[in-house]
Structures are given as C-alpha cells and as structure tokens.
Design goal:
Blueprint lengths: L1 H16 L11 E7 L2 E4 L8 E11 L10 E7 L8 E2 L3 E3 L2 H6 L1 E10 L10 E7 L2 E12 L9 E10 L5 E13 L13 E11 L3 E13 L11 E29 L9 E22 L3 E10 L3 H4 L2 E2 L4 E13 L2 E5 L2 E12 L4 H10 L9 E12 L4 E10 L7 E11 H8 L2
Amino acid sequence: MKTNKQLVILLVLGFILLPRALQAGDTEIDSLVLSPNYITAPVSKNTGNTEYTISLKIYFDTDHLPKTGDTIKVKMDNISFPVKPELEKNQFVVSKEDSTNGVLEASLKISLRNQTTDIKSDNICLIKISGFEKSSTPLLMKPAFVYDEKKYFWVELGANLDLIDGLKANNLFGGVFYYKRDIQKIGKRHTNNLAFLGAVYESKALAFRSNEDYVSNNFIDGTSLSNISPDSIQIYKAFGKVKIVRNVTNIGILASPQIRLSKKLSSENGAHFYLGLWLEALWQNFSIEYDYTEQATIDTLIAPLNDLNLYRPTFRKENTSVDFATHYFGAGLPVYIQEKDANLTIHSMLGACNQIAASTQEVATNSNLSSVSRNWYAFYLVQFRLNEEQYGLSFSGEVRGLLKKNSPPVITLVLSKKFDLAKLIEFTTH
C-alpha cells in the first residue's frame, strides 16, 4: 500500500513538472536578441490599444543545452515606460529542434492599453528569462515620431544634378528652410492644423542641350582682319556640329501657409493632406552656351571688303546671359507622408506667374535684353522632397512650367544634406 502511495505521488509530481521549467545550473544562456529591438508608440494619449509582434532569439550555451519539453518564461523588468506594456504570451516550450540547435525563437506579442499620457522621448525596459537574471536585452519604446522643435529650421547644402552627360553634379545647392506643422488651431478643429513652409535658396535646373548637326557656314571673328591688306578680310568656312546648352539658375524666396485637412496629427505615421497657398519670387539667370569644338574650319577665303556681302559671313555666337525677376502666386494640395525616420512631402500647385515664355527667353538672352514685355500665364508646379531624418539626407526635385504651347518645363534635381540651424549657431558661437 505504501508503495502504491509513493507511486501516485511520483506520477503527480511528474505531471506537475512536465513540461519542466528551466532552472539555472543545468542550462545556460549565452545571449538574447530582439528583432526589432524597439516599439514605436503613439505620441498622443487616448489612442486606444496598440499591439506589436517582436522576434526574440535565445541562444543557449552549447555545453548546457535545454531539454525537449522544458519551458521558458519571459518577463519585462526595469520598466521606465510611461505606459506599462503587457506581454500577451510569456511562456514557450523548448522543441526537439531547439534543444538540438541551441537556439529558441519566440514570437513576443506586446500590447499597450489605454494610453493616458503623451510619449515625447525614448524609454527603456529589459527583456529577461526567469531564472536567468544576468541574461537580458533592452527593449526601447520610441515615440512614433516626435517633431524636434529645433529641426523645423535648418540649413541645406548639396548639389544640383544634371543628366546632360550622364548623372552628375552641375552646381552647388544651398538654402535655409523653415517647415513647421501643427502650429495652432484654425477653424473648428480640436487639434492644431496650421503649417507654414518658408525658404530662401539657390539652385540650378537641368541643362537643356540642342544641336545644330553638321551645319556649313561662313564666319568671321577677331582674327579676320589680321595679317592681310587693309581692304581685304579673311572669311572662314566651317562644317560640323554646334552644341547649344541652355541653363536656368534660380535664387528664390518662398512662403507657403497650409491648413491640414486630414484628422491625424502630422507627427503620426501615415499620409497627411493639406490645402496651401504658394507665394514665390525667383531671380532667374537664363544663359546660352555655344560649343564649336566639334566644328572644323575646312577653308579660308580672302575677299575684298567691298564683296563681303556676297559671302554672307556671320559672327560666331558668343555665350550670353540675362537676368529676370519672376513672381508666382498659386494654390494646391500638399501631401506629407511620415513613416518612422523618413518622410516625403509633395507640393502640387497651380496658379499665375509672369515668367517669360521660352520664345521670349531665347530672344532676350541672345540680345542680352534685361527688360522685355511681360505677360501673366498659368503655371503648374510639382515639387517633392524625400528626407531621411536620422542622417539628415534629402533628395528633392521639381517640375515647373507654363500652361502654354511650346513651353518646355524646367526640371530641378537636388541631393543634399540637412544641418540643424540651431546647432550650427551654437557651434559658431562657442
């Protein structure tokens, strides 16, 4: 009878201890690895419940592996989160494969419930295994995006890109920018929805090249009257390709007040839609460059000055440029897309401007005319800016043109680096 009681007790203990919990001494843990090692919590309170799934890999010491059927219990310790996260599942059973390979991969489900406070900075806790207090790995809680108040005002330096002879830099780009969203409340909204974009910048558009292919012409230049008699002139006959490159360089000042139409704060991940005005002044330099390196002089004629008109020679065109001030007034629907450390801004605008038409640009530049008759035309503008905030990298561009026949668009591409203006001022004053 006593033997039967002992047997029953052993069976009961066996069922209680299976699956057996890991205990320090017979199993050792080398390291814990989380992927990702952070969760991005909503910035604002009262956002309901938020759930996350994180992969946890437990690497065991190869000389002290767990046994099949052992259980591990995950816990969170040293929590500094303003909102206490909860582990939906914290116990995992070691499989035969886990005990053989020495690696157990668990899927942790973490939830934040009834967030009652705003999250404005990074917080940390430790992921541990019960019974192995010395083995831990940190888990960060980051705000989904906190718009750093120092970063709405920045300096940008980089290069304008050109495609005329393959992708290459064609000009130094620089500017000072201000872009602050959710400044204050406009209308009946419960949250701030006013934004403002301002900028002062210098940039250069993509060069536009055209060719006069294999033309034959008679021309004279500064050497035509040298080393000959006073009543004669040298006329050169050339044949070949003439490259003509047109450039547009801008110095601009921009102001664009905007009202957010979508409900979410711009600090939250996702797409945000705005209604905005576009007020811009550009000081534009239009230039034309002529390249005769591929045109060969095939003959030289010496003609009397009185017979010059018979040969109809021309002077070779020289590089010219002219400056104009242009004004743009428009409206449109900007879009701002935020996703963790990256964001994309797209401005699509329509309006009126006094930009000179392409045909007038040609005449004014060739004749070096800084004052011509100006008309107002409808214009379109599509501008994008892709930012990576962690390293401050930016890729931007725009397509700008007139809603008028025979008016090719002006295209700009820029690769640049953003610098926090507040930090630059602090650096230069110390």
